[in-house]
Amino acid sequence: MNKFWLVVLLFYATQAYAIDWYVRDWPPFNIQQGPDAGQGSYDQMLAQLIAALPQYSHRQQFATLTKRQQLMQQNVPHCLFGVLKSPERQKKMLFSDTAFYSPALRVAALAEHPLWQSTQASASIELASLLQQAWRGMVEYKRLYPQNVQQYAGELLQVSDNSTDLVAMLKAGRADYVVEYPDRLHYLAQSHPSVALRYARLQGEPPVVPVYIACQNTPAAAAQIQAINLALQQLRTKTEYQQAWLQLLSEQSRQELRLAMAQDPLFQPAAPTGCDAKAC
Asked: Which residues of the chain have pLDDT under 70?
């Protein structure tokens, strides 16, 4: 074997046992800056997953949503923690079993905004009805949204995913409402103590959604996902793993997620077998 092919084989052997995790600054889930850096819920859960995969070497690197899309399209080997499935993503990436659940997106606006009276919104609201009344909505650029949001994206204000204070935009009247995760807005609102927000579910959307780990579909990805699924079997039922996600959420979100986990067999402790079951 000549030197060239030896280098190639060594390169792929090294890649097979290395995982590059690309994360973004998206408080309170990923926190890359300030005194709480590394303490976001995704940060803590990923740290536990990495510890459960000692057979791999791990590197964490920063990437915006735009950068992530480029990595996927260019077939760069990498993995992402905390992503939703879509047909486009499934063409390029392999997905784990459910890693955890998340409260679904909500429509949020200032509590005193007149849209709440004009739409007669209570538990849920239809996005089309807001657009018909010319209220200005806001979404983050390059995000994956449900179809009943994505179809209206061209009619909504699209803002940067990592530099826009969504609550400040609402407070200043730059937008009337935003489609966002309620606990992200709750976290951002801590910088605006005088602002009160009100939320409504998107009509037709479930209260919670499953969230996954995804790896670029390379020759090493199938083994990586298999190892990740084995690690998740242990992590999903651990108090430390569940607490890392739940601790930064509102009480309502915690209740919704606990109900989803209670109904999903993946989140139930494995039944004892053999001597463990018979106490022999």
From this structure: 1-16, 119-122, 161-162, 271-280
